[in-house]
Specification:
Elements: H1 3-10, H2 12-18, H3 23-44, H4 50-63, H5 71-84, H6 88-100, H7 110-131, H8 139-157, H9 159-164, H10 178-182, H11 192-219, H12 225-247, H13 261-270
Length: about 300
């Protein structure tokens, strides 16, 4: 399947935003998405040897060459990385995040949560920054923030699905009840009181996401003019998922929130605000205190 078709099928919010990128950038962004989707599908799949395959892909990215069953996917990504000067350490950390997901998630604290969000999404923001030919020295920091914000939104949106797979990304320090910490598979049938405790944690997730969305929104001013509008639309559409969760009183047991086509068009119109001139933003270093040592993160 062609990259743009994969984007249309699996990444509807990003596909919608890609219409505003222009053909060349949209094609490159779709290639990056195709690789990330391939790795994600492998990580979430049922193949017996998937951990071995993920580890082999990691080694291929280290060696910058590949000779096994996933060669075509990896070589295609390596060609894109060479063309766009994408730091392969970001892709390696993405693989590391996918490998870590092979054991049921059980985070203890906010730092672990944020480092995971960086691994599986902040790295994608970093790579996308290169795909869009953004050369400003501070752009990477804001791109990482957008990835982190989106992943926090994903976690808030998918609490029910993750619980059914015995995954708990909400840090245990946010949850006071022992039974909620250890057995997420039991959340589905939890009492109203326990559901409310989880809803409060989801609110905390989305409040944290808002800090990173706010930073990322400022950073859009550092992107080339050609891509600012598309990224602003993607940010607004994804952010809307959390806002709809809030409107629904964080009723996570009712299933996923989906942004309607009509709402996407409303957000697109609001996205025109990106063309209002803004001063060059300064990144809030505090947002990356938990991420020091990871790809694209400056040391303090």
């Amino acid at each position: 399947m062609k990259p743009i078709a994969i984007l249309a099928k699996h990444g509807k919010s990003f596909y919608f935003a890609s219409f505003f990128l222009g053909n060349d950038y949209a094609a490159s962004a779709a290639k990056l998405y195709k690789f990330c989707r391939f790795v994600d599908d492998l990580a979430d799949g049922t193949e017996i040897n998937k951990i071995e395959r993920l580890q082999n892909i990691f080694l291929c990215l280290q060696r910058e060459t590949c000779q096994h069953e996933d060669t075509l996917e990896i070589e295609s990504f390596l060609a894109l990385a060479k063309e766009k000067n994408i730091p392969l350490i970001a892709a390696q950390e993405l693989l590391g995040g996918m490998i870590s997901d092979q054991t049921p998630a059980r985070f203890d604290n906010t730092k672990q949560l944020l480092r995971y969000c960086h691994a599986v999404a902040g790295t994608v923001g970093l790579m996308m920054c290169h795909v869009l030919d953004c050369s400003h020295k501070d752009a990477n920091s804001f791109a990482i923030d957008l990835g982190v914000a989106m992943q926090l939104t994903n976690i808030a949106r998918d609490v029910l699905e993750d619980a059914q797979m015995d995954r708990r990304y909400i840090p245990s320090e946010w949850l006071n009840l022992t039974e909620l910490q250890s057995e997420p598979s039991g959340w589905v049938d939890a009492s109203i009181d326990k559901r409310t405790k989880i809803s409060s944690a989801i609110e905390q997730l989305l409040n944290l996401a808002e800090k990173y969305y706010g930073s990322a929104e400022q950073g859009i001013a550092l992107l080339p003019w050609k891509s600012r509008f598309a990224i602003n639309v993607a940010l607004r559409v994804y952010r809307q998922i959390g806002r709809q969760l809030k409107e629904k009183k964080y009723c996570w047991w009712q299933g996923r929130q989906i942004v309607s086509v009509f709402k996407k068009f409303q957000l697109t119109i609001l996205g025109l605000s990106v063309f209002i001139p803004k001063k060059t933003p300064t990144h809030q270093r505090k947002l990356h205190e938990s991420l020091i040592g990871l790809a694209g993160v400056d040391s303090h």
